[in-house]
Each structure stands twice: as C-alpha cells, then as structure tokens.
Design goal:
Layout lengths: L2 H53 L2 H12 L7 H26 L5 H14 L3 H9 L7 H10 L18
Helix pairs in contact: 1-3, 2-3, 3-4
C-alpha cells in the first residue's frame, strides 16, 4: 500500500467520524430541546397551581367572585386590589407561557390550552376595563397585542362568568 491510499482511507475514516459526531450531537440537541420544553411546561403548571391556591383563600375568592358576578356596581379598594392582583398573577404566568411558546420552549398544544383560560379572565367587564386602563401597561408589547386581539371578541357566555354549566 502506498501513502496516497493510506491518506485516502484516513480521510474516509475522518469523514465517517465527523458524520457520526454530527448525528450524535443532533440527537443530544433534540433530547435537550425536549427536556427544556418539559421543564418549561412544569414551571408553568407549578405557577398556575400557586395562583389557583391563592384563590382558595375564602376572602380572596369571595371578593374576586363579587367582581365577576357584577352584582354590586362598586367594589371596595381592597376588593379592587385583590381583583387586580389575581389578574396580574394569572396574566404574568400566561405572558411567560406566551414568550416561551414564541421561543419554541412550549409546544403549541400547551399554549393553545392557555387561550380559553385567558378568555375566562376577561369575561368580566371590570377585567376588560382594568386591562384597557391600567393592566396592559404591565406587560410586554407582544403580549399586549395578543390580549387586545382576543378582547376584540365579545366576552364568553355574554359576560356571565358564573353561568350554570349544562350537565347531563
């Protein structure tokens, strides 16, 4: 065998090694992406659980429910604060979900499952007014556009949050 043949064999082995390395790295990158998506989804679920847990406090749920029932035309300052902070808690989680989805960290199915929850927040007239006059300024421009677009539609169930469920 001459040196040219040995050099050609070395080049072939080198090319195969580079190809094998690229295949391995591609597989690792795919696994890492899946792990990041799962971690992002878990963080979102945990954040939503924390917000929901805060709503279990009887005082908070009573005051926020009063705002959504829209029976009393005036809310006290403390009731207004609780409503505002409940909305901010949820919307900050949803904004992060939106940003993660936009970067490819959330699967579309997870983000799509958040949209009805966002719509539910804005069933109440007070919630829509809060967003328009105060709340939107706390959020990123891209999330503001998303919410503004969703608010172009009429509130779900004609604005009746506590409309009885149809159970058969």
């Amino acid at each position: 065998m001459n040196w040219e043949a040995i050099g050609a064999i070395g080049e072939i082995i080198g090319a195969i090694s580079v190809l094998a390395t690229l295949i391995f790295l591609s597989s690792q990158l795919r696994q890492n992406t899946i792990a990041l998506q799962q971690q992002s989804s878990r963080s979102s679920a945990s954040a939503l659980q924390q917000v929901s847990a805060s709503m279990m406090d009887p005082n908070v749920s009573r005051n926020v429910s009063k705002a959504y029932a829209e029976i009393d035309p005036d809310l006290s300052i403390s009731q207004t604060v609780q409503l505002e902070h409940m909305m901010m808690q949820y919307l900050l989680v949803f904004q992060q979900d939106f940003l993660d989805w936009d970067k490819g960290l959330h699967p579309s199915t997870l983000w799509d499952s958040r949209l009805p929850l966002i719509d539910a927040i804005f069933v109440a007239t007070r919630a829509r007014e809060w967003w328009k006059n105060v709340g939107k300024h706390y959020f990123t421009p891209s999330f503001q556009k998303l919410i503004d677009k969703r608010l172009e539609s009429e509130a779900r169930d004609g604005g009746e949050y506590f409309k009885p469920l149809n159970v058969s």
